[in-house]
Design brief:
It is found in: Cell membrane. This protein is α+β, with helices and mostly antiparallel strands. The chain is 37% helix and 21% strand.
């Protein structure tokens, strides 16, 4: 029984329904009733499949397909049903025809995994890809009368993979030589230019201040106007004109992506193999490391053959991120390269500087060493013993300076690549033994054993003997400096591959953290015990560079507390170089002897020596005769010089080599003053001051710090720790003596020092030098607080007699400033002798002598009542001092204020803040007050119930300051540490600093 014809399309879904409704009689296939059984069977297969299938039948290639296929051809359905495929797919027929013809003519099926077709199925010519198979379709007689096509669309897969390749090309396109931003941008657009199906054209704009600059672009062909001539070179981001916004660049530069339509009118650029013009572009921000401002803008064309859907936009987002990352990396690389070039240039400048300075040093050093050596060798007019000792000290230190200059010159030559090895055949063991013997006496004097193991080698070694001497000398000096017990061993041995020098010690060792930095320039191991703190930190670096120059290397092993072993290895291949033919230079062993001469200075008896007062003519006997001075310095020549200088003043001097020995000596016999260097081994000068001030027994002990570290910061550190004075090397002997005298005298007038170093007998302070002032129902002694002695060159504070209290006011205190010896910059004492001070003190007590009656630093200051505060501050305390207008007065002021506030409940942090701010005000008064009517600075202290105020007044006119200087470092410090007011008149300037007594924190 035959089934109705409509049953043929019954299971075909929507397409089957349309096929059933179609009048097939009007098509080349004819009425359905006339279809052969083979066609019917093929139609049933197509309609029943859920996979896209197309049946082409007959000479006209009429189309029959299913629902799945109808989705592939878009708006060509349903008109395609029964129509000729050559009409329906005319835009892609040139691609399809060979495949269909092959299936029909050969009867062999074909398959193409990604067939590219240009389809007009959505209102534009769309780039599409299909996985397609064409198989022959046969009629009832077995003849091929059609083609059965099975296909699926793979457009998203193909396009997605292609876009990923572009992103990969962007990330892998660098060849390692692209080190600047412009070259990176050019590389990026070249990579983008290789993918015109996805990005028809592109331009990279980078932000340059307020503008965008085009750095690279791609797109166009010889038959059209290139992109570079159409797009703007520079766009002002703030320009509101339509021309500036034509491509959406300003908005994108603010972080907003912009779709740019109408590209065809401005840039008739064909895209892809089909020549369709680009209609749309995107202006996309290039993300930067910070979100507030993009790095630049990527302007990119959109393919006219692909829909700008979410996937396409996501691709562009990834593209901008990739471009941005590459540009950022290039910028960072460029910045790093510039930094490296700057550092290299600084290094070259430094090396050149060292070279020039070292050469410039040689002439004056020659003129120093020559006459000194002549004087020492002169038998016709021999030097007297004291003079010979001085000349020998000068000669030793000039030689040490020459050694340092030579080391710097050698090191700068090595770094600049100008150094060379004057290689000669050397009996290396014999040379090493000779150099070690120079050190033997010094090593044994240090209580160490020197072991030398240098057996003969089978043949000479070719190297520069001067370089070898420097290597051996530096390693032995280093071992001696850091070894206190045990031995130092030096050995030379060899095997088939290399010659080795080994220097081993049983010293303090080196931590693992310091080993990698050991051969770096100027690196010094911190905190380790050593015989001296002196040194530049280039010794081991020089060893490393010299070993490399000789073709070898330096190795080191170390264990803290056990010792260190250095090994210099020279391969035999480099040790067999052709020797030089020029004569060998003179001076063999000079480097070693100079190093030993310096090392001997480290080995002075650690117990220290005591220099008795010199019998040579000196200053007239005074009240300071027999004063005890403790000198702490790790340089033996400096200790000897200071001991001779101070003993010549009639003082008893004891010297030690470091801060720990100084503490021991102070406990054994408290001195009148400690004179300490800053940089010392074991315990340095700053730590010594800190420990002395932390101990109640030594808080008031005067300490004068000597240092080669010049500058305000270094002196501030020392004074802030409690040092009484800070003197920078080199110094004048007269200045040092004046400052020591002043510090001792001030300490002896300070009753707070009685508990520690109270003088007796002739050293006692006259009774008239102290007084008490009634205050708040009691008496107050105007003395320094424990541990706060005053530096030289300032006005000492002594209390005035009781003064009348103003009617109706609360009691107040006024302190008068008593002058002592001052040491101005020229090194001459400005103060009067003690014999002249008692009448002055009496005049001060009577209030009869005005400040201006005599030079500041010698004239007394009259005492006058200080009334109670009338501005609401309160009347707990009021005090006033007058100081000479010299830089050292700030230190005296700090100590006087600290003393006056001893019995007031001032928070410690507030006190320190006030002292720092007041110091800045005092320094400003000294520095900026021009042509003062009185060469002095007055300081007034007031304390109320909850606030404290310090006023600093000068008597000059401040020099004009540029507006940019109005908020300098001093002003910032004062404002940071208190409420500051400044009042300036023709008679002077007053700076007032006020704080609460308690810390609000």
């Amino acid at each position: 029984m035959t089934r109705p014809r409509t049953d043929l399309f019954a299971d075909g879904g929507d397409t089957g329904r349309l096929m059933a409704e179609l009048n097939w009689a009007d098509t080349p296939l004819g009425a359905v009733s006339s279809w052969p059984q083979s066609l019917r069977a093929a139609v049933r297969v197509v309609l029943s499949s859920r996979y896209p299938m197309l049946l082409l039948w007959g000479d006209r290639l009429s189309q029959l397909y299913n629902d799945a296929y109808s989705a592939l051809i878009g708006d060509k359905h349903p008109a395609a049903l029964g129509d000729d495929v050559r009409v329906t797919l005319a835009e892609g027929w040139d691609v399809l025809a060979p495949l269909i013809r092959q299936a029909m003519e050969s009867g062999v099926a074909s398959w193409v995994p990604a067939l590219q077709l240009l389809l007009e199925r959505a209102g534009y010519r769309e780039e599409a890809y299909f996985s397609v198979s064409h198989a022959p379709a046969r009629d009832d007689d077995g003849r091929t009368v059609g083609v059965l096509t099975v296909c699926s669309e793979v457009t998203e897969q193909v396009v997605g993979e292609r876009r990923l390749r572009l992103l990969r090309d962007l990330s892998l396109g660098g060849d390692g030589r692209t080190v600047d931003v412009d070259a990176t941008c050019a590389r990026l657009v070249d990579a983008i230019g290789g993918h015109p199906l996805d990005v028809p054209f592109a331009a990279i704009y980078l932000r340059d201040g307020a503008v965008l600059r085009r750095t690279a672009c791609t797109g166009g062909d010889p038959g059209h106007r290139p992109v570079a001539e159409t797009l703007p070179d520079v766009v002002d981001v703030a320009d509101p004109s339509p021309a500036a916004h034509a491509w959406g660049l300003p908005d994108a530069a603010q972080g907003r992506p912009v779709d740019v339509p109408g590209v065809t009118d401005r840039l008739p650029l064909p895209a892809g193999p089909w020549g369709d013009p680009t209609r749309t572009a995107l202006a996309l921000p290039l993300p930067s490391a910070t979100e507030d401002q993009p790095l630049g803008v990527l302007l990119a064309g959109v393919s006219p053959n692909r829909e700008l859907d979410e996937a396409y936009r996501s691709f562009y987002q990834l593209l901008t991120q990739q471009v941005s990352m590459a540009v950022r990396n290039a910028k960072e690389y460029e910045q790093e390269r510039r930094r490296a070039e700057t550092l290299a240039e600084l290094d070259r400048v430094k090396t050149t500087f060292f070279t020039n300075v070292s050469h410039e040093f040689r002439t004056p050093l020659t003129l120093m060493l020559g006459p000194l050596a002549d004087a020492l060798a002169d038998t016709a007019a021999p030097l007297a013993p004291p003079q010979r000792e001085r000349v020998e000290t000068a000669w030793r230190n000039a030689t040490r300076l020459l050694t340092l200059v030579n080391s710097l010159l050698t090191f700068s030559s090595l770094e600049a690549g100008r150094a060379h090895s004057d290689a000669r055949e050397v009996d290396l063991p014999a040379l090493t033994v000779e150099l070690a013997s120079v050190f033997r006496a010094a090593v044994e004097r240090a209580g160490l054993a020197l072991e030398v193991d240098c057996p003969p080698l089978p043949r000479p070694v070719t190297l520069d003997p001067v370089n070898w001497e420097r290597i051996v000398t530096n390693l032995l000096s280093n071992a001696l400096k850091y070894t206190f017990i045990g031995r130092i061993r030096i050995a030379v041995d060899a095997d088939h591959d290399e010659v080795r020098l080994t220097v081993a010690d049983t010293g303090i060792g080196i931590s693992e953290a310091d080993l990698p930095k050991l051969f770096e320039r100027f690196h010094r191991v911190q905190g380790g015990r050593s015989r001296s703190h002196e040194g530049t930190g280039i010794g081991l670096a020089l060893v490393h560079e010299l070993a490399r120059l000789e073709g070898g290397e330096v190795r080191v092993t170390s264990q803290v507390g056990v010792g260190t072993t250095f090994t210099v290895a020279l391969p035999w291949s480099t040790a067999r170089r052709a020797p030089a033919t020029t004569p060998a230079p003179n001076g063999r062993g000079d480097v070693a002897r100079a190093a030993v001469s310096e090392a001997v200075g480290w080995l002075t008896d650690p117990a220290g020596g005591v220099a008795e007062p010199a019998a040579a003519p000196g200053p007239a006997a005074d009240e300071l005769a027999g004063a005890r001075i403790l000198v702490a310095d790790d340089n033996s020549d400096m200790r000897a010089y200071l001991s001779r200088l101070l003993a010549g003043q009639g003082w008893r001097v004891r010297s030690v080599t470091d801060g720990r020995q100084a503490l021991d000596a102070i406990r054994q016999e408290p001195p009148d003053l400690v004179l300490t260097d800053v940089m010392m081994p074991v315990l340095d000068g700053f730590d010594l001051v800190r420990r002395l001030r932390a101990d109640p027994a030594t808080q008031a002990l005067p300490v004068l710090v000597l240092s080669a570290r010049a500058g305000e910061e270094a002196s501030v550190v020392g004074l802030s720790l409690g040092a009484d004075d800070y003197l920078v090397k080199p110094f004048a002997a007269a200045e040092l003596i004046a400052r020591i005298r002043t510090a001792i005298r001030r300490a002896r007038t300070d009753p707070a020092a009685d508990d520690t170093t109270a003088p007796t007998g002739d050293d006692a302070v006259p009774a008239g030098d102290e007084a008490t002032v009634p205050a708040a129902g009691g008496s107050r002694s105007a003395v320094d607080a424990p541990g706060s002695t005053r530096p030289a060159g300032v006005m000492a504070v002594a209390p005035a007699p009781p003064v009348a209290e103003p009617t109706g006011s609360a009691p107040a205190v006024r302190f008068a400033a008593e002058p002592v010896d001052a040491a101005p910059a020229n090194g001459k004492p400005a103060g009067g002798e003690p014999a002249n001070r008692e009448p002055a003190a009496g005049a001060a007590a009577a209030g009869a002598a005005p400040v201006g009656a005599a030079p500041v630093g010698a004239a007394p200051v009259g005492a006058a009542p200080v009334g109670a505060a009338d501005d609401g501050l309160g009347d707990t305390l009021a005090a006033e001092w007058t100081y000479p207008s010299v830089p050292t007065s700030a230190a005296a002021m700090r100590r006087d204020v600290r003393l006056a506030l001893t019995e007031v409940d001032v928070h410690a942090d507030v006190l320190e803040d006030l002292l720092l701010a007041a110091s800045e005000a005092m320094n400003n008064a000294v520095e900026h007050a021009q042509r003062p009517s009185r060469p002095e600075v007055r300081v007034r202290l007031q304390v109320g119930d909850d606030r404290v105020r310090i006023s600093v007044r000068d008597f000059g006119t401040w020099r004009d300051r540029r507006p940019a200087m109005d908020r300098g470092r001093g002003a910032l410090l004062m404002n940071a540490y208190g409420d500051v007011r400044l009042v300036s008149t023709g008679e002077g300037t007053t700076v007032t600093i006020e704080r609460r007594l308690t810390d609000p924190a």
